[in-house]
Amino acid sequence: MKTKILLLSALSGFISILTSCYREIDVEKYRTTPKIVINCPISPDTVIRASITRTYFFSDLDNLEPEYNGWNGQTEISSIKLRNAKVELYINGTYKEDMKWQALDSVEEHQAPDTFFVSTVIPQAGDKVKLVATTPEYGSAWAEDVVPQRVPIEKIEVSCRKETGDPYSIQNNTPGNITYNNEYYAFQYYITFRDTPGKANYYQLWVEGDIQYIDPIFNSVNSTIDGTLGYDGVDGRGGRVFTDELIDGKEYTIQVKELIQAHYSVQDLKERSINLYSLSESYYQYLLSLEKISASTLSGSLSNIGLAEPLRVYTNVNNGTGILGACQRTNIKINLGDYIPKKEDK
After folding, report:
1. How far does CA 143 lie from the centroid of its chain?
2. What is the pLDDT of residues 179-235, one digit of tens each?
3. Fewer CB near the last or first residue (10 Å), C or N of the chain?
4. Other residues' Cβ atoms within 10 Å of the Cβ of residue 333
5. What residues are paired with 69 via a beta bridge?
6. 119 in Cβ contact with 251 (< 8 Å)
7. Which among 141, 137, 136, 58 has a CA at the least distance from the CA of 321?
8. Contact predicate 249/196, CB 8 Å
9. From which domain of life does this come (predicted)?
10. How far is CA 186 from CA 189, 207, 263, 295, in A?
11. Are 1 and 9 in contact (CB under 8 A)?
12. In 3-state terms, what secondary structure has residue 285?
């Protein structure tokens, strides 16, 4: 009997410990006053388009008015779009215009139209661009940034070899037989540019395709512990940011890699778009924070499972949130079929 009592006592204590891990939280006490959100990428390639919305509390989703429900089930929320906002554009401290609200048809069928405030002015390199968004309900928010200089790609070289391994085994169903093709083309891209000396410069490289960003320059934005524990972030799918901290004023060749299954014929191998962006510091900090939150770093992974402080998305918007970020792009397209070894041509 004594053993049973002790066992029951132990079980009761253990259960009480487990139940003590749960408690109700009144999330309403964390509700904040809505703020204006400015999202506006700036480039000399086009006019300025700014998305002006407001923040909302997550529990408000059921009460917000849906505008459109597309084929993919995503809902646009019209009530957070501040289409009646006054959006003033300043270039180098001089007022230029009030930007006009427009609905732009989406290039994707069955998608809701995008809505922006659009300028008639196209900014140039070196311009300081400032937006001020004002509404009676949420006051004013503003942000500014300087358009960086364009950085040319001086040279692109590509190597290709056929390898055997098992990075992407392909199941080939033939009548009465199943085989696996584990041959693939290993493409190596060498992208050369020259950094402008004497000042801090910020970049992003984005290469179309399933790219492995293997160059060590991308590791310079991660912490030492990230690299030690294997969180090098080189599996980014939307490009990778980097700085000139290690290459100030030098010519540098970035290496990235792509593996393509060899069952593709030369005719099937499409072109690749190689894009080198020069970024403002604000835009760099914003994109870097998104990389970290995507769990390509140790801190991002730990925060996603509640074992570290949540990471914040960088913002340069005063009295609001979002990003006004400036960039310039150099784009070169290559045809992958041109680099297949001749004996592989079919």
Report:
1. 20
2. 455 788 999 999 999 999 999 999 999 999 999 999 999 986 554 334 433 434 434
3. N
4. 11
5. 75
6. no
7. 141
8. yes
9. Bacteria
10. 10, 15, 13, 27
11. no
12. helix
Q: What is the pTM of this model?
A: 0.79
Q: What is the DSSP letter of 81?
A: B
Domain residues of the chain, as ranges? Answer: 29-146, 153-344
Exposed/middle/buried for residue 324 (C-beta within 10 Å: 0-12, 13-18, 19+): buried
Rounded CA separation 47/262 (Å): 42
Report the length, in residues, of the chain.
346
**What is 29-146's CATH number?**
2.60.40
Beta bridge mates, 328: 278
> The tokens 């311009």 sit on which residue?
127
Round the CA-based radius of gyration of the chain to a whole number and report it: 26
Angle formed at CA 311 by CA 307 and CA 316, multiple of 5 degrees: 170
Q: Are 255 and 214 in contact (CB under 8 A)?
A: yes
Check if the beta carbon of residue 131 is closer than 8 Å to that of residue 88.
yes
Average pLDDT over residues 141-161: 97
The answer to whether the CB of 96 falls within 8 A of the CB of 64 is no
Q: Is 157 in contact with 332 (CB distance < 8 Å)?
A: no
Evaluated on CA atoms 41, 231, 218, 316, the torsion sign reads positive
